[in-house]
Request: fold
Amino acid sequence: MINSNENPEKKSGGKLLAGLIIGGAIASVLGIHLTPKKTQNLLKKKARRIWGKIEDKIHELEENEE
Reply:
């Protein structure tokens, strides 16, 4: 039974958004697991480099704050 105050389009929009998020997560996991080992290693190295840059920037900001 539909309440007169509820908008049926609003409910379907939420379901669509949830479906897109869940579908994106599943596709990401499958994409990572199905890539060749060479590509996985390349992505891991790149992620480590980026994480190192982030840590360096955090330390730099902490030093500037003092």
Observations:
- Residues 10-65 form one domain.
- The mean pLDDT is 85.
- The helical segments are 8-34, 37-65.
- The chain has one domain: 10-65.
